[in-house]
Specification:
- It is a single chain.
- By secondary structure, this protein is of the alpha+beta class.
- The chain is built from 9 helices and 20 strands.
- Helix 3 crosses helix 4 (about 125-135) and helix 3 packs parallel to helix 5 (about 155-165).
């Protein structure tokens, strides 16, 4: 990750203790099913937070509770110190961009953007200028008289953002707004929206199940699972130091190796017996592990060849697949007598490498992560 961008993200995240949005002990049930249980999250002013997780983990439910489209069964939601838990949606001054954009097909672009201002009973003399300014922000002035049905998906997305921004919201919520776009356009819109919201210093919460999208856009990422937040941190923290096995598997690619950890640790390092041999992993914060565990290694940390010294783990495995991704190539290995598959990421495949060849692989002990087996 770019070092300057990472430091900027850390500075924004460091201000998160200056709470702007505060969700405290929020619970939501649907019948007998508890979707969110005592969930807590605080967001700083101007911060961009992504809620990342699989379908059904509670991301959209949390977003709708913040928007006021649902009422929590317990807990408190406040913005800038004001308790909004019982305030109806239309009085919260929160902008929402829905997954399907929720635009009015029978109205023009200009009329769609003006809708929120008219609902707020903004003076007519003011509406025109604010609509034009909002369209200028998303570069849609030339389409003001077009009907929504005449726009492409990317153009409709821009209109939805303009409609949310024109009311000068205290908070912007985005529920998977790029899911209907093709990959190239989605990547373009991610960068454009990120720059726009940071320039405007708008506090934003973004729901996505796309890990790459969250890593690209966020100041911090809240990784959710079964109605709870398993980790909240900068993109670099979430990727480089996953707090749980779920976070490791959901954010980025990884190699998993099962084994049994020795109850004793030497110099803060766990020794794990695996079908591939002994593998060492660092232990953090004085914690210890024993019994069945799962080791995790990011594919870009693994290299081909013999280890340089004792600071590296080393295994042998047979190359079974070569998968070309353009700017990188993934090599998949199957160790003998083991169910685990090892993935290695390289820029180019070295000469002489072919499927069926047994190779030695190594990676730094410091890049090995260890978790209790599920």
């Amino acid at each position: 990750m770019n070092l300057v961008a990472t430091e900027a993200a850390r500075e924004r995240a460091a201000s998160a203790n200056k709470r702007y949005l505060d969700v405290a002990a929020v619970t939501k049930r649907f019948g007998t099913a508890t979707v969110l249980q005592d969930l807590n999250i605080s967001v700083a002013r101007s911060e961009f937070i992504s809620l990342l997780g699989p379908s059904g983990c509670g991301k959209t439910t949390l977003l709708r509770l913040i928007a006021g489209l649902m009422k929590p069964d317990g807990g408190r939601i406040a913005i800038n110190g004001s308790d909004l838990t019982q305030v109806p949606a239309h009085k919260r001054n929160i902008g929402v961009v829905f997954q399907n954009y929720a635009l009015f097909p029978h109205l023009t672009v200009e009329q769609n953007v003006a809708f929120g201002l008219e609902a707020q009973r903004t003076p007519k003399a003011e509406i025109g200028a604010r609509v034009q300014n909002a369209l200028a922000l998303v570069r849609m002035q030339a389409f003001a008289e077009r009907r929504i049905s005449a726009l492409s998906g990317g153009q409709q997305q821009r209109v939805a953002v303009a409609r949310a921004l024109v009311v000068k919201p205290s908070l912007l919520l985005l529920d998977e707004p790029f899911s209907a776009l093709d990959r190239k356009l989605r990547e373009t819109m991610q960068i454009e929206l990120r720059h726009l919201l940071r320039d405007l210093e708008i506090t934003s919460i973004f729901v996505t199940h796309d890990q790459d999208e969250a890593l690209v856009m966020s100041d911090r990422i809240a990784v959710m699972n079964e109605g709870r937040i398993e980790q909240l941190g900068t993109p670099d923290e979430v990727y480089s130091a996953p707090a749980s096995l779920h976070v490791l598997e959901f954010v980025g690619q990884s190699t998993r190796i099962g084994g049994t950890a020795d109850a004793s640790a030497l110099n803060g390092t766990a020794s794990v017996e695996t079908p591939l041999g002994k593998i060492l992993a660092p232990l953090h914060d004085g914690s210890g592990v024993s019994g069945k565990v799962v080791l995790g290694v990011r594919p870009e940390c693994i290299a081909l060849g013999e280890r340089p010294d004792a600071n590296f783990n080393e295994i042998s495995a047979e190359l079974t697949d070569i998968v070309f991704f353009g700017s990188k190539t993934a090599l998949h290995f199957q160790p003998p007598g083991a169910d685990d598959r090892i993935q290695v990421e390289v820029a180019r495949v070295p000469s002489g490498i072919a499927q069926g060849v047994a190779l030695k692989l190594y990676w730094p002990i410091s890049e090995t992560m260890v978790y209790p087996a599920p």
